[in-house]
Amino acid sequence: MAILEIADLHVHYETLHVLQGISLSVGKGQIVALVGSNGAGKSTTLRAASGLLPARSGEVRLEGRPLMRLEPHEIAAMGLRHMPEGRRIFGRLTVRENLEMGAFTRRDRNDIAMDKERMVSLFPRLKERWTQLAGTLSGGEQQMLAMARALMGRPRVLMMDEPSLGLSPLLVEQVFDSIRMINDEGVAILLVEQNASLALGVADVGYVMESGRITLSGAAADLLENEWVQRAYLG
Questions:
Q1: Using CA atoms in the order 159, 54, 89, 74, what is the torsion angle rounded to 10 degrees?
Q2: Which residues of 38-75 are buried (b: 16+ CB within 10 A; e: fewer)?
Q3: Domain segments of the chain: what residues?
Q4: Do residues 192 and 42 make contact, with C-beta atoms less than 8 angstroms apart?
Q5: For residues 180 and 203, is the Cβ–Cβ distance under 8 A?
Q6: Beta pairing class for 65-66 and 188-192
Q7: pTM, whole model, 2 decimals?
Q8: How many whole angstroms separate alpha carbon 30 and alpha carbon 35?
Q9: DSSP helix, strand, coil percent of the chain (3-state; round to 5)
């Protein structure tokens, strides 16, 4: 059963038709990878789904509930959280304050306090940096903080945009271990990632995007074995 559905989504930048009828779905408990070259429209898909970009037409539904006419903060409160490219942590706030910002749509103070404790158990380095300004963290630590901040909203679906961008191979491995851990916690994930091999390796289902269209989809393991995908994206 799909928890997130994107159906026939069209987005324009002025006269440029960027998304040309995108349709995809994320099932409960799944990791779904959206792969493609730079400029294919992957980030635009996430931004439109989270309400940051207006769509010309199409539908986005979370557990059957339409999202298209809602504001971004309303979409986040319903359980669809967006981790944008480049982490976008609040550099002048501490680690603790960043986590509290992740819970901005919530009013359950006791549970928020419990979730902060859960985040530092999932990401122990954050406890060591608890009062440190987030802008002074390493790139890997900032990515961990970005994930923890998103989880503070108790998402049903987490959309992640290029989580490995700019990280060393060792840190990339740690980030993808964290993605598996988050998914094991029951959070479905829509993953945009330039490294197609990594993305499809961790995903259940994959979609290949070219020039604003989905050109191929299927089980991620099958896409990894697809000769065209290997030539185009896996080197």
A1: -80
A2: eebbbbbbbbbbbbebebeebebbbeeeebbebeeeeb
A3: 2-86+155-233
A4: yes
A5: no
A6: unpaired
A7: 0.92
A8: 16
A9: 40, 30, 30
Q: Is 165 exposed, middle or buried (0-12, 13-18, 19+ CB in 10 A)?
A: middle
Q: Would the CA dihedral through 89, 92, 96, 101 be positive or negative?
A: negative
**Distances in whole angstroms, Cα of residue 151 to Cα of each of 116, 209, 230:** 10, 27, 33
Residues 6+ positions from 14 with CB-CB distance below 8 Å: none
DSSP string, 70-104: S-HHHHHHHTEEEE-TT----TTSBHHHHHHHHTT
Query: What are the pLDDT tens digits along the chain (235 aa)?
Result: 899 999 999 999 989 999 999 999 999 999 999 999 989 999 999 999 999 999 999 999 999 999 999 999 999 999 999 998 877 899 999 999 999 999 988 888 889 999 999 998 888 899 999 999 999 999 889 988 998 999 999 999 999 999 888 888 888 888 899 899 999 989 999 999 888 999 999 999 999 999 999 999 999 999 999 999 999 888 6
Rounded Cα–Cα distance for residues 64 and 81 (Å): 16
* Residues 99 and 148: beta-carbon distance below 8 Å: yes
Architecture category of domain 2-86+155-233 in CATH: 3-Layer(aba) Sandwich (3.40)
Contact 118, 154 (CB under 8 A): no
Residue 24 near residue 209 (C-beta atoms within 8 A): no
